[in-house]
Every structure is written in structure tokens, then in C-alpha cells.
Design a protein that fits this description.
five-stranded parallel beta sheet, seven-stranded mixed beta sheet, 2 domains, alpha/beta, FAD/NAD(P)-binding domain
């Protein structure tokens, strides 16, 4: 039996793993890959590299440390976490079948999964002028024309953040009829933001970078918009299914945690974007993972 199992190896999971090593905890990290979304970057035509705040080096150090400690990580996907008398049993799906891992405690840092549009050019230009988190790059977009597509408050907040730096922001919202006027009023606060109605994205085009988005209208009309940066800001979905019957989730499926990253289940902690307190920022998730690990360490040693 392990003292601790860490589920996920994005920024929160990697940070928790690094600190578990320093604390001398008998642990194993379970993830499909090491790095998560924190290892993905988007480049845009123009901005200088030295202006980019990069957490990748820190995450790369954490990742190399875990790769070196081969006995401390398993490639797999956690399917369920079930309480037992002595702790927890985690069912993990790997390439060679299903396995059970026993542990006294767990840190859930499984993050979220992106929702994609599934239109031509989306995958081709991801990372080359097309991204999924405008807030992470807003400071690079001085004087740029930006397109933000989304389905709710997340995309509106991103557009307003980007508008502080960009020359213009075009916002395309879908499936938000009940709140559309509220969002429209918020967007009116920024004079350089335009909201387009009754259209959908048909695809993206470009060269080395994404340069245009194709819009389709119910009438059959097609329109192209040129821009320097494009963001798809659909609300992501939390990877919390494996603990859905064990811990409290909010109405959107995110794990509810307290100030010490404790969940409603004793011995189960959560960190990063899978929690209701997630900020979708790598460095915030790193701090969250460290805090969850320290809380788990206190629980293991003193029952706190």
C-alpha cells in the first residue's frame, strides 16, 4: 500500500509529485502523460519571445525528476476511487489491462478536457495563432486584432481581458440566449470589442499561422475575418468522474475543496483546474498542487 497516489501529471500533479519526493512520502503518480496542458504553447506572428512568461522550465524540471524516478509513476487512466477500511482503492486502466492501487490518501489533479469545435483547420493551426486560453496570452497581444469564440462567461471575461491590450476584439458567442443581453452589456464596457450574432465558425485558414476564420450564417452567407490571434473559449469539462461518487462536486462537475485543498472525503485532496477554485493558469496550479501535497502530508502524519 502506498501512502499517497497522485492522479494527474499536469502542473498541479507534477508539483505535488516533486514535493512528495522531498517529503519522503511513499507515493505513485498515475497519468496518461507527463506535462498536461502546461506543456502546450501557442505562438503568434510578431510578439518577441522574451516577452513571454514561461512556466515550462519549472514544469520540465518537475517532469524530468518524475521520469527519473521510474517507480514513482505509472502510465494509465484512473477510472474510480473507492474508500476501503484501510484507505482507498484506485482502479487504473493501462495498456495491459485494469489494475488496482491501494493508498492511504490521494491528490486528484486530473485537470479538464478541452472542448473543440471540430471544424477544418482547428487542429492544423492549434499552437500557431490559434489557442484555447486567451487570458494566458493577453499581455502579448498589444495592437493586435483578436477573435474570441465561446459559450458563456469564461469567453466574455477573456475577451474583456484581451481588450485591455488588443487593438480590436471580435466576440462570437453560442448557446447563451438566456444571458446574451447581460454579456452584451458587459462587452459594451470596452469600445474596441464587437459582438457578432447568428453565425458559427465554419473553419480556419492561414499559412504558417492561422490568419482567417470563416463564419457561416443561417442564410447560407459566408464571411471571412482576418486577425492576428484566434481563441476557442468553450467551457472545458472537469476530469472528475473517477471521484464523482466519493466527493462533493459543484453543479458543473468541479471538485469542491476548502482552503487546505481538502475535499469532502477524508484523505482525498484535489488541486488545479479540476477544482471549483481552479484558475486555468499553470503557475496557480503549481502552487495549488504544493498546497494539496502539504495538506496530504499533514493528514498522513498527524491526521489533520
Amino acid at each position: 500500500m502506498y501512502d499517497l497516489v497522485i492522479l494527474g501529471a499536469g502542473p498541479a500533479g507534477l508539483a505535488a509529485s516533486a514535493y512528495a519526493t522531498r517529503k519522503g512520502i511513499e507515493f505513485v503518480t498515475v497519468a496518461e502523460s507527463l506535462g498536461g496542458k502546461g506543456s502546450e504553447r501557442v505562438a503568434f506572428p510578431g510578439p518577441a519571445e522574451h516577452r513571454v512568461v514561461r512556466p515550462e522550465q519549472l514544469l520540465a524540471d518537475f517532469r524530468r525528476e518524475l521520469e527519473y524516478l521510474v517507480e514513482r509513476h505509472r502510465r494509465g487512466l484512473a477510472r474510480s476511487v473507492v474508500p476501503r477500511e484501510r484507505g482507498l482503492v484506485i482502479t487504473v486502466e493501462t495498456d495491459d489491462g485494469s489494475h488496482e492501487i491501494e493508498a492511504r490518501s490521494a491528490v486528484v489533479a486530473t485537470g479538464t478536457r478541452l472542448r473543440r469545435l471540430g471544424v477544418p483547420g482547428e487542429l492544423e493551426y492549434f499552437g500557431r495563432g490559434l489557442g484555447y486560453s486567451a487570458v494566458s496570452y493577453s499581455h502579448l497581444l498589444h495592437g493586435c486584432d483578436v477573435v474570441v469564440h465561446g459559450d458563456g462567461r469564461r469567453s466574455v471575461d477573456s475577451a474583456l481581458e484581451v481588450s485591455r491590450y488588443a487593438r480590436s476584439v471580435t466576440v462570437l458567442l453560442e448557446r447563451v440566449e438566456g444571458s446574451r443581453e447581460l454579456y452584451r452589456n458587459k462587452l459594451r464596457e470596452a469600445s474596441n470589442v464587437t459582438m457578432l450574432d447568428d453565425c458559427s465558425i465554419a473553419g480556419f485558414d492561414g499559412d504558417d499561422f492561422c490568419r482567417t476564420v470563416r463564419l457561416a450564417y443561417p442564410s447560407g452567407e459566408l464571411r471571412e475575418i482576418e486577425a492576428d490571434a484566434f481563441f476557442v473559449e468553450l467551457q472545458p469539462e472537469p476530469n472528475s468522474e473517477m471521484v464523482a461518487d466519493l466527493v462533493e462536486l459543484n453543479e458543473d462537475g468541479y471538485i469542491v475543496v476548502d482552503l487546505w485543498n481538502r475535499t469532502s472525503a477524508p484523505g482525498v485532496f484535489a488541486a488545479g483546474d479540476v477544482t471549483a477554485a481552479g484558475f486555468e493558469q499553470s503557475l496557480v496550479a503549481v502552487g495549488d498542487g504544493v498546497k494539496a501535497l502539504i495538506s496530504a502530508y499533514s493528514h498522513l502524519n498527524w491526521g489533520l
